[in-house]
Amino acid sequence: MLNKYEELSKEFQFIDEFDLPLSKDISIKRFVHKKSGLTLILNYCPGPKCNASIVVPTESINDKGLPHTLEHLIFTGCNDIPYREFLEVLSNCCLSAPCNAYTAEDHTCYSIDSIGPEGILTYLPIYLKYVLTPTLKESDFVTEIYHIDSNGKDQGVVLCEMQARENTADDLLEYSMCRDIFEGSGYQYSYGGKTSEIATLNNQMVRDYHGKFYDPKFMTLIVQGCIDIEGLFKVLDKVDYVKSPFHNSEKDADFIPWRDEIPPLLKSKSSFVPYPSESETGSVSIGWRGPPIDDIFKITALTVLLRYLQDNSSSPLQQRFINKTVPLANSVYCIVHEVKDTKITIEFSGVPVNYNKDKQQEDQQNGKSNGDVGKVNQEKLKKDKENEKDNQDDEDENEEDDDDEDEEEEEEEDEEEEDEEIEEEKLKNCEDEDDVDEGDSNLFNERSIYDRLIKVLKDLKSNGFPEEDSIKKVIEKEMIKMLEVLEDDPLAMVFGSLLCCVVFPSTKPGEHGDIKSRFFLRPIFEELLEKPHQFWFDLLDEFFIDKPYVEIILKPDSKLSETIANENIQRMKDTIEKNGGEEGMKVIGEKLKCAIESNKSFPQELLTQTMSKIQFDINKIPLIKIETILNRAYTQENPNPFTVQTLLVQTHFIHSTMVFHIQQSLPDHLRPWLTLFQIILFETDLLVLNDNENISTATTKKEKEKEKLLIPYKKVCKSIAEEVLSYEAVLGFSNSTFTCSSSELFRITASCQVEKFDRLIYWIFNGFFNFSLNLKRLSTLLTNVYSSLQDVENDSTTMCGLSSLIRLFPNPNISNEANISIFKQREFLKSIISIIKSKNQTEIDFIFKMITQVRDCIVSNPEAMFIQISHSASISDQSFTQRFVDKWNEYLENSNIKLNKKRKPQQDQQQEQQQHNNNNKKEQQQQQQSSIPFFQPLERLKTEIPTPFSEQLIIKGSESNNLLQYVTLPINTTHEDYPAVALLCNIFNGKEGEIRKKGYSYGHSLLTDTTKGTLIFGLTESSAPVKALEEFHKWLKTIRDRPTEIITQQSIETAVCTEIYDFYSTRSLPNELIIESYINIFKGLKDFQQSIDLLNRFKEVTYDQIIDVFNKYFIQFLDPNHLFLSMTVNPSSAKPLEAELKENFNISITSKYPSQLYIPFNYEEYKLSCKK
């Protein structure tokens, strides 16, 4: 074996290899470069993707963000190719994603993702040159890192990025925790850089940092996917792995990153950190030092223990802090951070500032009369019983018209008694839950959360696990999760496991660290399965109870944003004065202009010469095999009113998807309730039929109704977590509670092990049809979702998108997306919470009724439903789809939900068709085969861009600026113009462009959204959004006036390569193919092959077609009459940007605060409208 690798490479020495235990197809091999010491790890993995990652151990030495600033400057040129943009354009030409990099607390990683093995062979050697021998020019430092413009404003790409981040809750929490828990080490500093410190950086500091850390002997190159190993060694053998050109051989001769031991945490610390926000919630994070990075056994055990503590709604921490009538937080997150000396953190988010006040109000209401509350609940139970009896009366009348009236009454009386017993049990379950909270009522005091947390851990230690096999079930789930992670993204899983092993170089020459152990976790899990309970309690003692800890208390401060805004304005004034006033700033402006002009783009012939060496054949790209069986409604194969798709794909699991088209089925007055409906599914009690044949004696439907069982939500959540691998019930796609795409749809997805498919069906269908609401549970869920809403308000980028989207619907009342937006939900949820707190049973009944009606309307039209079941073709039992469909029909029938079918059954259609001639028959059949009502293509709610429109939202808790400009794009992906439109967007996105070169914005993009018929220009984290917008308009005007400067044959071919990469990279894994299989149908495509045929259209696009679509669609961006401009800005930027837009574009923009967009909700008026 050794000789074989020696034949492949003369420069690299083979070290070791092994196969992954969870996959027969994945093999890992390790080599070391003989001269430089660079480590090479190869992971062959089947599929179309191939990627490379260059990992450099980096350590912060101050808060200037040197690792991060260097990461940005690497891409600006190398000694052989001293040009910006070249890497970015080259990656697109190589069927690759744009080159990317990230900086973490202890390493920097430069990566490239490609389709097929050829692109890496061309790109990687050049990428290595950029990393090893960068130019690090002064002019690049000025534009990419930091400069001040002629107005005294701070600018630069890195500055834009960090300015947007450093005062956010997440960044403040992470920085403060690392500062306190790792004091005395590189982890205590901001690796991204604090803006005040970035302003003190200079280019020589960055060069010195590169010289110190970027030594090949510290680096690891990881290449994964469909590797051409022979070809890879041919190109890697030719690379010169030299030391940094800035290396100081005397000063850095003995340097090894992360060699020093991290000082221990000897005493506990508590830090109070205010952050700019008008939110009513904050965060508390508690951290402890964990085991060393190489103690895999204890790290794995701690991961299991933390999973038990917080995995689902029944877990101890969720019960103690979240699932309360007055929650102490809206989420809890536990993790072992795998750094050199690991840290364990338990973070509580959504901690209410007014907890004491809310708790007192709740206690006063309860203390007023517990008996009254009981009476209210009993009245509710009685009403529920009467409603159920009435419904049953109607059903009995239809089903048994000839039954004797007296017998019916006797049966109903028996039913009534049984129902009372069920509801009493339900009430008992609700009232018996412990809702007592002992501890400091000010949750932002020191130890307030900590003391409660430690009590939970001590109680667990004292009382033991509630069930003998509690921890064993968590371990078993973790073992299955390993396989799921590997299937979902094998390259990311392998990279993540290797990372801990390669970041910390060996301190002994010639010694190679262990990279194998982290892949062989099954023996560890099996050993943990045998551990007694005392082992887990000992872990609590070893790492948590009475051990030094760090507590970070993050509290919102509504006045802090104003303070920061004033400081920014004053800093600009001081900068102008410091640099000699107006005349001095002119000099600075000229220097900046020179720096920008010196950052010239690469000569075109350089790219042509590089690309001439390779040829791509996309037909050779390896694809995962799939087989699709589509059975349309009302056919011999599928007599049901809904379409069913079976997908045979290489997966270890069974995946189920139900998609409901609800746009027409859901009345407008129910649309605001969609948010609540989402959050209650699988999170409430269930009232289910007794399906235990050993216990049940019921033989008729009525008798089964009498034997309903109440399953408390804690047991529901626990059982689903144990028996179902993953599940989701959401509106549309990319759902994040208050926003989504394709909101015409409601989706329920789930996956499980093959042998647990029947349990998946049981929990998913019962969770959907048989949820049982109670006041306390709904109150908890409502409070938590309302709390999470406030986090969205602080996100400037998200708010920019949301405020734009709600304008696109001419009638927002009929849009699901507009109804779930925070602008609708804030006042709506606030009103519902107020009613819940009032405990007015009549109103609570109404709320329960509305939520239930949402469910009923979703399923009311069975023809507006689509089912997909996916599993492996190798499974002998292929009846999964039929079992799923049969059970759905059974549950639907038992639900007594009134159905509203729109179409005629297939038999009736056939009789009508017989009245037409053969030609008409054939035409109708073809049309029927190419479309599915509601879904193929997807029926969408029409949108309209209101123009002219310009508005900026002032976000007090943010320091970044974001911008969106919309124009109309009235086409879909199958339209003849779409390929040319997509390619022109790729041409813009494929280069760094003037916006980035001049340091105006961290991110910019030009994208299509065919779901809403829009073309969108966007800026994220921008310090100069108006100047960036000017640069975009200059680009458009260049195409209008001198198109050949931008639209060239080379740029078109590069844009085509980008499209090919995007296509195959989203169809490279089983879970991606599962989703794409029904998305293709929604696009109006017949099958997967047709999507490939559509991809081939991009190769045929001509220069003239691109000019044509530019004049049809893109030119609208320059038309003031078609202006739609939306911005989110920080308080200090609002007035200057308003003036700048007026001066440069003659745009008068309206300034608002988010509160001015909130839609009022009057509950009484709403109820009256419902009656109408």
Descriptive notes:
The protein has 1172 residues and is of the alpha+beta class. The strands form 6 sheets. Strands 1-2-3-9-4-6-5 form a 7-stranded mixed beta sheet, sandwiched between helices. A 6-stranded mixed beta sheet has the order 15-16-23-17-21-20, sandwiched between helices. Strand 20 (726-733) and strand 21 form a beta hairpin. The longest helix is centred in the first third of the chain and has 30 residues, at 370-399.
List keywords for this structure.
29 strands, seven-stranded mixed β-sheet, 1172 residues, alpha+beta, 46% helix, 17% strand, six-stranded mixed β-sheet
- The gyration radius over C-alpha positions equals 31 Å
Shape: globular
Strand content: 15-25%
Strand-pairing-aware structural class: alpha+beta
Number of strands: 29
Sheet with most strands: strand arrangement: 1-2-3-9-4-6-5
Residues in helices, as a percent range: 40-55%
Which stretches are low in confidence, meaning pLDDT under 50 for 5 or more residues running?
Answer: 368-385, 391-405, 426-433, 904-919, 921-928
Note the total helix count.
44
Distance between the termini: 81 Å
pLDDT average, as an integer?
Answer: 88
Largest sheet: 7 strands, mixed
